[in-house]
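Much of what follows relies on a compact textual record of a protein's fold. Each token is a code from a learned vocabulary of local backbone shapes. The record below shows the convention in full.
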Amino acid sequence: MQQYNLLISKISSTCFRQSAVQHPTTTKKVLDYLILETEKDIRLLETRKQNTFRIMAAKKLKQIYNTNHNTHNTYKRQQYVLKNIYHKLANEKAMIILADKSKATVIIYRHEYTKKIHTFLTDNNFHNPPDNPTNKDQIRIQKTTQKCNQIIPKQHIKYLTQTPPTPNAQLKLHKPGAPIQPVVHNRTAPSYKLATKLNDILNKHLLLDNHYTTCNSTSLATDLVKCTINDKHKLITLDIKDLYINIPLKETIDITRTQLLKNNNTQTTNQIISLFEVILRQNYFVFQEQIYQPDKGVAMASPISGTMAETFIQHLEGSFIKHLLDSKSITFYSRYVDDILIFYGSSYTNPNAITQYANTIHNNLQINPTPENAGQINFLDLTITRKTTNLEIDIFRKPTTTNTTIN
């Protein structure tokens, strides 16, 4: 029996090793190889045992064949269905895109997709530069990098790509009119590698306190269950509209410089800022063979965008949120990127007052509120229910959380 187990183990492991690197259409070659290897091993056994092991090995090989045959047929059916879908989409001038903040797959006509992108570009004051700035940015980045020996060793300076990034978009199905959430492919951008390196440097030297931020739903839920409330407390969420493209560049650079000088010498700070400035110039992309660039804001999906947004927003929070908490106008404040959760005392303030105040914090930021409904509100993937003295937390799944294709 031990010999049989060893033989079967070898057959199975050999099959896995071969099939892991083979296309399903080569199943016959894999099985031929297994048969030869199995027979070779069987002939090493005593003559009187060989026929018995051949019968047992044949059963195992047949089982492997049937499994691979079914897998191959499934693969062929999937390829056939996908081919028909792509042909149908091409004939109907449609395309497949993802929904924002869900796993839904959306089929949309190409002209509608283009219209939504142009609406976004117009609403956010994108313009067309007279020339493609990619080559100039490439040269500027190389020269600046060579001067920053305090933070980037020469051996770490890599060749940079020279292709402008391209946009994609996800649909916000959970919002009226299903506007787009732009997603820009920045990996081909001249500043991408440098932005990745600089983001690591900033995380090391900037030392943001993250006092009002939450990193995920689990962390937020832990904080919420510790909260004590009363019947005067209410809930509201705020959404910062199009945060990244509305970040004021010069102001954020000045904030970053001040923050860096708290923990670093002047030379290191100046080199980081010089890289920062040259990277921020590259906030354009190409769509339908035209270059588009916003009047303000950082490059969407750039490795440095998140850190820059946090630097700017945390500066505002330190200036405007602390005194609201101290005055008891609000009793809880937590933010995840551009989504904010607030508890407030209804005897001190109301949703309109909170929204009006939030929209006066900075001219670039537009804040959209969502008040609680029947003592309940959704934030991230949590449903938060207000009780008399505490909060109940449950999992929230948006109506768009589905694997169904919209046709």
Observations:
- Confidence is low (pLDDT under 50) at residues 16-25, 402-407.
